[in-house]
Amino acid sequence: MGYLKSLKIMGRAPDGTCPECAVKYLATNPHDKNSLFYQYRFYDQHGRWPTWGDAMAHCTPEVQKVWTEELEKLGEAVSKIKMEDIR
Ligand SMILES: [Zn+2]
After folding, report:
1. Ligand 1: distance of its center to the CA of 6 in Å?
2. What rounded mean pLDDT belongs to the chain?
3. 8-35 burial, b if ≥16 CB within 10 A, otherwise e?
4. Of 81, 15, 83, 9, nearest to 44 (Cα)?
5. Residue 75 has what pLDDT?
6. What is the distance in A from the centroid of ligand 1 to the CA of 50?
7. If you measure from the C-alpha of residue 30 to the centroid of ligand 1, how many angstroms do you get, rounded to a whole number?
8. What is the pLDDT of residue 10?
9. How many angstroms is it from 5 CA to the middle of ligand 1?
């Protein structure tokens, strides 16, 4: 943590939403990569912006496959997940 250093612009995610992306959704799905809450939280932890691969890193292989196929139909780039990038 701490890539944003003293820039603290966010509090906690609202109750009932995902604590990482502040969006309400089925927990088996990816985080909302387009959520600014998620993007800044991820940047603060990793020093880079998240990809869809990062957003779905916690999902099962089946969920990742379906989301990757659908995102690619929409023209969204889904980077391959590299664990060293996530940690
Ligand atoms: Zn989330």
Report:
1. 24
2. 86
3. eeeeebeeebbebbbbeeeeebbbbbeb
4. 9
5. 87
6. 12
7. 6
8. 73
9. 23
pTM of the full structure: 0.78
- What is the chain's length? 87
Q: Ligand 1 centroid vs 18 CA: distance in angstroms?
A: 5
Q: Which residue has the higher pLDDT, 60 or 86?
A: 60
Question: Cα(79) to centroid of ligand 1, in Å?
Answer: 18
Residue 86 pLDDT? 47
Residue 16 phi, psi dihedral angles, 5° rounding: 90, 0
- For residue 79, what is the DSSP state? P
Nearest residue to 86 (alpha-carbon basis) of 52, 60, 57: 57
The ranges assigned to domains in the chain are 1-9+20-87
Nearest CA to 31 out of 55, 14, 49, 67 is that of: 55
